[in-house]
Design goal:
Structural class: alpha+beta
Strand order of the largest sheet: 1-8
Number of helices: 6
Number of strands: 8
Number of domains: 1
Strand content: 15-25%
CATH class: Alpha Beta
Low-confidence stretches: none
Length: 173
Amino acid sequence: MWISRDYSRCSGCRRCEIACSLYHEGVIWPEASRVRVFMLVPGAEVPHLCAQCDDYPCVKACPFEALSVDDRTGAVIVDKEKCTACGICINACPGHIPHLHPRDGYVLICDLCGGDPQCVKVCQEGKWDALRLVREMPQSWQLYTTKLYARTPEDITRDLVKVLFGEASEEMI
């Protein structure tokens, strides 16, 4: 399982952050969402969440074995009791996607909501279609998806701005 992103379709509504925080925290708390929307340039919103890299560098880097991979969904699972919030997994991630829970001191990574991602549901309900659930991905796509999506918001925004506003707009970032 994997969530594909079409950045050009993201409206910046942040319903994905709200749905995620409601599902995981029981309250609207975008800072504790496993998906974050970055707007580094007005008009270019970037939903940023785990790309489920084929080699899971965050899981391999964790010295406390607080991260594992769910066999059914392929999502990274965080053991809150083992996580020390050391940040090694954040630095190991090519997109620096994991981030720390704003209150409880453990790392947040998309767990695909156990196989029913709430962010995808609200994005599809709103007809934005910026987020889509891919249930089966050919092995040959995995390297492609990592290179495309496991990048920093700045890198993704730079490419998106070129698409949306043209080559001359690169100076905006």
